[in-house]
Amino acid sequence: MGTLRITEIASQTGLSIATVSRVLAGKSNTSAAARQKVLAVARQRGVMEDLANGRFLLNGLTIFAPSRAFNVRSDIFYYKVIQGITQAVAQHDVRVRYCELEEVDSDASLFLEKMNQKETDAAILIGIDDPHIHQLAADLSKPAVLINCIDRSMRLPSISPDHLLIGQFAINYLFQMGHRNVLTLQCLRRYTMDLRMRGIRDAWKEQNLEFVDANHQIITEGFGSAEAEARVAAFIADCAPDDRPTAILAGGDFMAAGAVKALQSAGLKVPQDVSVMSMDGFNLADINDIPLTTLHVPRDELGAEAIRVLRQRLFEPRSPCGNLLLGGQLITGSSVRRIKHSAKQTPVYQKIIYD
């Protein structure tokens, strides 16, 4: 049956059986025009459904991302996402190419130049927030998938961590461990971090607890440990012992490391005096020999899911676009301890009921 279908496709497209076979096998030594002819007829004859789990059917993939994403020292998260993509296509005959593109005010001419090259059969855009780039990608005839960003015109599929739920879950874990006076240490560099912060604030409201910015939040410029250490040290120095937080929720492992160092410099022990939890969990398994409690934010999985969605777009280009949100995974270490909270540590909203 497979040979018969290849013969029929070859006859209908005017191409050789060898060319049709190479296209359906996902080989790179075929032209874009031949590939389009074969895939169009294959869809009509239902061949694509049989291939969906075993073929990728493209030769060249271009990854667009901010410049920092290509340097492990600048942005280890995006760097690992890109590694996840390359690993997902390693078993296929696909050449991966890279292009630096900034998050906003992106170079549209550079984007179009790379997308219109014959070596680009499809694209993955990581962390690109420019709506003009999204529009251009959607208007082109080549499939594109977004990672950790969203096309608000709903024309491109996207895969992202569920930042809102991740924020809610992390703070709720600390609430379940008895903590009420929790200091949140976050960098709000992108709207994705704003979503995490919104989830954290929502969880406080759900617990009928009052979130006071001056008491429960430190906003940093970046995710580094040095800045986090300095900001936490200053915060602890200004706190009366009774007002000191019982836990710190950090936006990343390096921030958590800075917080631990600041606490230890102040003569406080982790977790005996103050617990520390991170929302990252890939970079540091422990801090100063303290196994870190963390919520693993999906990272390597983003690349694998993007390739899966991209493959679906190749087989079903007119299928509806959606936004796939991936949840995190809680890893419990010894940096967070359970405590008994007192009424003094629990500021609540006053609910007034009118008859």
Automatic annotation (TrEMBL):
Single Gene Ontology MF annotation: DNA binding
Transmembrane segments: none
Keywords: DNA-binding, Repressor, Transcription, Transcription regulation
Pfam families reported in the protein's UniProt record: LacI, Peripla_BP_3
Domain of life according to the entry: Bacteria
PROSITE patterns: HTH_LACI_2
Protein name per the record: LacI family DNA-binding transcriptional regulator
Signal peptide feature range: none
Gene3D superfamilies named among the record's database cross-references: 3.40.50.2300, lambda repressor-like DNA-binding domains (1.10.260.40)
Organism: Pseudomonas folii
Classification via SUPFAM superfamilies: lambda repressor-like DNA-binding domains, Periplasmic binding protein-like I
Ranges where the HTH lacI-type domain occurs: 4-44
